[in-house]
Design a protein that fits this description.
With 96 residues, the protein is mostly beta strands. The chain contains one helix and five strands.
Length: 96
């Protein structure tokens, strides 16, 4: 929820926090205008699959995985979904 409170520095942009607890999909989404440019983008996308937290997308400067570890989530329960499967073994987190 903290990530969803951050407003972009410029533009008329709405921050949408999307929480789907039935299917375990969670997103922070930007929608609006920056001058003449349409903004419609996902900044964070997290899923829970098979009991693990899948970081599907992170377009922020924050280290979401480290934030989860600090919050008490074991590294073996976090998957870097944005990394190719063959690279995940090098992340220090779960492979899947």
């Amino acid at each position: 929820m903290e990530y969803g409170k951050r407003q972009p520095a410029h533009g008329d942009i709405e921050v949408e926090t999307i929480i789907d607890t039935e299917q375990d999909h969670y997103q922070i989404f930007y929608v609006g205008w920056d001058k003449q440019t349409r903004v419609h983008q996902c900044s964070i996308h997290i899923d829970i699959k098979g009991g693990k937290i899948w970081l599907q997308w992170n377009a922020t400067e924050d280290d979401l995985a480290e934030d989860l570890v600090i919050a008490g989530v074991p590294k073996e329960d976090i998957v870097w979904g944005f990394q190719p499967p063959f690279m995940r073994k090098y992340t220090g987190y779960a492979v899947e």
